[in-house]
Amino acid sequence: MEAYWRLASPDASEREAATVELVRSLLQQQQAHEISGTKQQASKGEKEKPEKKAKSESSEKQENKAYRKRKGVHREQAEEKEEEEATTNNVTEEKGTHDTNSEGITRKEKHSHLSTSNASHSNGNMLYGKLAEEYGLHDFSPSVQYALRRLVHGVASSRECARQGFAMALASLIEAFPRLKTGSILKLIRKTLEVTSSMKGQEKRDGLLGQLFALGAVIRSGRLIVNVTDMEDAKEMTELLLCLAKRKAFLREPAITLLIQFFEKLPPDVLQDSILNSPLLQETLCMDIDNANADTLLLALRLHKWLPYSVVESCPLLPNSKDLHAIFEPSHLLSIVSVLKDSSSCHPRLHSIWSELAELLFKESSDQEQFTPSKKKKKRQKHNDAVIKTIDERVAIFWNLVVDNSLLPSSHERKFLAMELVQLILPKLSTSCTHSILSKKLARCLLDILAAKGNLLYKSAHTCLASICEWAKTDEERTVTVLIALQHASHGKFDALSRTRTVQELMSSLKSKEGCFLLYNKLVELFNGEKCVSSAADPQLLLEDGRDHNGVEDMDGRVKDDTGSNVKSLETHRFWVLEQIFSLVRDMSDTDLQWSLQKETLKFLSANALFVGPEMNCYLKELQEEFQFPKPPLSENTRKLCLARLQSLLLNMSPVVVSAAQDGKSSNGKGSLEVSVPSDLRFQFLELCDMFDNTSGVSRLQPFSEDGKDAIGALRSCLSQLSSLVPEASNEQTQKVRAMCSLLMQLLLQSVTTGSNDVTSELILCCKQAFGKLITVDEIDDIQEEKTEEPFYMDVLVDILLSLLAQASASIRSAAEQVFKAFCGDLTESNMLSLLRVVKKQLNPGRRVPTTPFDMGDSDDDQVLDFEDSDGGSDDKDDSDDNNNEEDDESLEKREPKQPHTPDLNTEEEGKKGLETPVGDHEMSKDNSDSEDNSGSDMDDEAMFKIDVHLASLLKQRRASNDKGEGKDTQTQLLYFKFRVLSLLEYFFQKKASSPLSLLALPHLLQALVASSSAGGNAELAERISLVLRGKLFKSKGYPKGQGVDKAALTGLLQKCIKLALRSKVKKVGQVLQSCSLWLMKVLHGQPSNAKDGSEDMEKEVKDAVNDFFYQKKCRLKSPFFREVFTRFPGIALACLSVLVESCRKPRSEFLQQEALQLVLVVLHGKRNGQFKESLLQNLPAMCELLVHLIEKPPSNKVKKADIRRYCVSLLKAVAQELPEKPVKKHIGKTAYNLCLSHFGASITDGIEKSKEANLVQDSGNASKKRSKQKSSHD
User: Fold this and answer.
1) Where is the composition biased (Acidic residues) (predicted)?
2) pLDDT in tens, 608-627
């Protein structure tokens, strides 16, 4: 009994051991039973005439014995039934049975101890008599009879792993006893596991599963295959399995699978003669498609080679062909699609039909299998290519119809099925057929699921994508194919949309030159109009709806033809291909490989951006290769993108290479320049343009005029001379040459790509003047001879640079900035005024320009207030109560002015932030003469006219682009133009802050700052000007010195700045004016002593500002400004000491008294010069009176009391150190001295005396050192 319980163990090895033990035991008992039967027959023959009395007694004993045995058997049956009903485990996942051969009973196991008991013999007598004769089991021992019935009952148990264990034991038992009749076993199964209508749902389910496992055990035992002569049993087995398949859906697939296994083990002649003629089987195969299912299709596919042709014709699931591959024809696939979709009922497991179809997909057809290829290599290769082409076509049709158009648009279960099919087919897939599997619909399905981790099929999609990547990484050709497929489906944004790094990982796996160029060539083929699918697919193979399998699909799966009807879709397709090519070249880490890809990409972009080619391939003689132009031709937007990427490639990936002369010396020693041939993509580009110009059938998109050709020739000549020459020993000259080469190259590229350039001749003239006679251009020399007067080249160069800064090309603007940085040391006053005029140009001509003290007009106080913002509020409201706002003022004074954040103004996009609402375009059409700046008098008429011409050209260009809907707002573009000019000024102030031109630019920039900060101005422009002044000019270490500095003009500018700062209501303007005032004081203070001294005027201006701070409510300056002035300039602090003491003695408020006291402390603690002693003696009486006043009337605040103590200590120390001739008591008076002692204690006076003694010792030591130094110098 223990062996039966072990058959239900979850451990498979334990179940196998129990099966072996049980079968071995039964074999031994059957052998013993046969031996005992033989002995009984022998003893019966010896007793011919037994006595009647002995017979009657023996018969009576046997009857009693049989009665007792039958009674015990019924009791045991009842107990077994109760045990089986008590089991409640419903685990039915594993439906297969395990084959256990009798050979598994080894010799060592045969000699093991017997584990049977006498009870098994006695309990097996229940089948003796009628039951044993009915099932044909009377020849077997009672143990075998009991085991057989017990195992049949056990396969219907719902206990965990009971069905698997009992079915395996049943198969082993049937195989171990060859005399068991199959019909008897089937009859026992049918009677024992009969399912009636009175049973409940769980009982019916257990009974049906028991029948399935029992029939499976019979098939696995091989009994029906051995006894093939009895065909009735085989037919009965077939009918039983087919009936089970019809009973329940969950029994359909395992029943059909068992039936297929049974058929495959039978001999073909027996199968065709007897089994396939079964009416029930033929009825199942010939049912309508509407009633058919995937299991029926699986059975039909497996039996196709044995079925009669009449059955094949009547079976709608099979094609009317001897070749089973005809099932993949589009018409037949469309008829069985519904049957295949039904296979998702076994979700999440993959139905067996898909494995069968996958194996059939990649199997050669019967015609190809019969063909024996020749031994010749070419014929074998031709045969292999034909096989691969046929398989690819077959897979493409199957995947398009079944997966793309049936499974993917359906439910989640069928989408999951599609992703499982990908993993099933990938290992068998050829590289040429990858595009068919990785279709747009599959990629879009993966993108939709991977967009969020919370999606239902996220893990399945992630696993599917990982499988695709692992498969692709095994071969570079596969990698390229998968990359193209994924990027094509997402328009080059697969990683961004799926939130993965799939494309990045695949790109990093391409390390060889062959792989990278394979990807590049595939992308070029896509761009040129070649279809993304392989040429192996049949282009004439059409679906029923008339769509071409090889067509190009859009993101929605709609097929687009190649005739250019849908231009927008074709543009989108070519856009992402261009971006992918550009990113491939840009992100390449290998330098040599990147250079090769750059040259190929340069040829590709040049041809598509500038030239129009023939429909057929053109031949390039210089390169000895053919070049293909796109079909259909490119649209205007696509050519613009090609041109933009061409310019970016030439600008960012290939800096101009200029090689320096060896050892910094020329060969002739006369300061000439050495020749060096540079290796640059831009020179490659010029050669490519010449090559395409000389190719027959290729023409330029925009042909050049005669003037354009001459200008391009002059530019090339000048550039070739400059790029091959390097100054001998001048680093500054080298920088100029490199910058000019870069600008000439950009202008040359612009001329080649867009036509002639207006500044070519003037720029070459500038080069001739800047670099002497090193440049000789015949055309320019003729023009120069005609001109009688030559202007200074910097005037022309700045004029050209301003016009270039107004262009839309970022590369040209960058090159112009580099030229300015190289030539900024040669700027003149007129050049600086030209730049400043652009900055001062109004964004809104209709707005009234505020008048400032920096204008050329009067600078009265009324004019100072005219620029103030109307939103500032009234003065009465601001200064209603100074006493109530003391704490606020204290907090304001402690705050440091914040540096405004200014974006990088080299790009147009970052300059958009913070812009004011622009004024309409109709206001820009007003006459500009009505809104000219008053500062224009600093420039002559010719210079002003040039600037107006540049601004007019800029506005005209932007207005034309706006009319086309391609440009931005005119005022916004003008603002960007101002930002670019300010970037030039910022660099000039950073490198040339000591130039007198800085003083020339300062008032103009202040005027522009005030105008942009007023009502209707632009806050972003004001912030940028503020950053240029405070961040570069005022913080630079250098400043103007010498004869070029007019101290009178600086003093007047300082006066204007201080006056404007006193009343400025705009915080930003006030901060800039305060910084400007400090910088001007530094410039005035740092001038040589022989220059005209303006310190008195400077002290007077600061003194007036201090008076205004303490006695005027409208003053906007704060005490931190005066602290900074007094700390930097002690002379100004001493001049203002009397005003500070008076303001502290007679304040308007307690807060101002505290401010004045702190400023006095700054003066006392500051640097002391020769004037300190004189100023101290002059102001000492007033300071002593202030000390008495502060001690007698102390403030209530503890912090303010501490300031009084510090003032007292500082004053006493200053008197003791500067006036040591008399005691401190005599200098400050008895009253003040006694008040200090009584209020602060004697510790103050002790510290003062000690500091005085130390000061005397230090003075004596300094005097002795001075005398010794003078004596040594005299000696």
Assistant:
1) 857-891, 930-940
2) 888 888 877 787 777 778 88
The pair of three-digit structure tokens given for residue 958, joined into one six-digit string? 């932007």
Helix (H) or strand (E) holding 558: none
Dihedral sign of CA atoms 660, 663, 664, 670 in order: negative
Give, to the nearest 10 degrees, the angle between helix 731-754 and helix 636-652. Answer: 170
Instruction: Give the closest residue to 744 by CA, choosing from 761, 769, 726.
Output: 761
3-state class (DSSP) for residue 962? helix
Confidence tier at 931 by pLDDT (50, 70, 90): very low
CB atoms within 10 A of CB 419: 25
Judge residue 928's burial from the number of C-beta atoms within 10 Å of its C-beta, 0-12 exposed, 13-18 middle, 19 or more buried.
middle
Rounded to whole angstroms, how far apart are CA atoms 644 and 814?
Answer: 15
d(CA 958, CA 962): 6
Which of 1053, 1031, 1016 lies closest to 871 in space, CA to CA?
Answer: 1016
Task: Report long-range pairs for 444-453 (Cβ below 8 Å, ≥24 apart).
Answer: 444/489, 444/490, 444/555, 444/557, 445/408, 445/415, 445/418, 446/419, 446/498, 447/489, 447/490, 447/494, 447/497, 447/498, 449/415, 450/497, 450/498, 450/499, 450/500, 451/497, 451/498, 451/499
Q: Which helix (H) or strand (E) holds 612?
A: strand 611-612
Q: Residue 82's pLDDT is what? A: 44
Choose among 110, 143, 113: nearest CA to 126. 143
Please say whether the beta carbons of 154 and 3 come within 8 A.
Answer: no
Residue type at 636? Answer: E
Q: In what helix (H) or strand (E) does residue 33 lie, and over which residues does it extend?
A: helix 12-46
Burial of 585 (0-12, 13-18, 19+ CB in 10 A): buried
How far is CA 681 from each of CA 534, 628, 678, rounded to the nearest angstrom?
Answer: 34, 22, 10
**The most confident of 151-165, 442-456, 587-601, by mean pLDDT:** 442-456
Buried b vs exposed e over 380-417: b needs ≥16 C-beta within 10 Å?
Answer: eeeeeeebbbbbbbbbbbbbbbbbbbbbbeeeeebbbb
Q: Which residues on neighbouring strands pair with residue 825, listed in sequence order?
A: none
A 10 A CB-CB count for 1145 gives 15
> What token pair was written down for 421?
């099919």
Question: In one letter, which amino acid is 802?
Answer: L
- Helix/strand/coil for 478: helix
Cβ neighbourhood burial of 47 (10 Å; 0-12, 13-18, 19+): exposed
Token pair belonging to 132: 């044993």
Residue 781: count of CB within 10 angstroms of its CB: 13
Q: How far apart are CA 409 and CA 650, in angstroms?
A: 46
One-letter amino acid at 1033 equals L
Dist. CA 925–CA 958, nearest whole Å = 13
Chain-centroid distance of CA 891 in Å reads 46
Q: State whether residue 700 is helix, strand or coil.
A: strand
By percentage, how much of the chain surpasses pLDDT 70? Answer: 69
Q: Which residues pair with 11 in a beta bridge?
A: none
> Do residues 1050 and 1080 lie in contact, with contact meaning Cβ atoms separated by under 8 Å?
yes
Q: Report the amino acid identity of residue 467.
A: S
Cis amide linkage into residue 632, ω under 30° from 0: yes
Asked if the model's pLDDT at residue 116 lies above 60, the reply is no
d(CA 406, CA 415): 10
Tokens 């050892």 belong to: 663
d(CA 521, CA 584): 12
Rounded to 5°, angle at Cα 807 from 584 and 587: 10
What tokens appear for 379 in the block? 């014929």
3-state SS, residue 527: helix
Tens of pLDDT, residue by residue over 298-343, are 988 888 888 888 888 888 888 888 888 888 899 989 999 999 998 8
Give the integer Cα–Cα distance in Å for 165 and 20. Answer: 11
How far is residue 537's CA from residue 396's CA, in Å, rounded to a whole number?
8
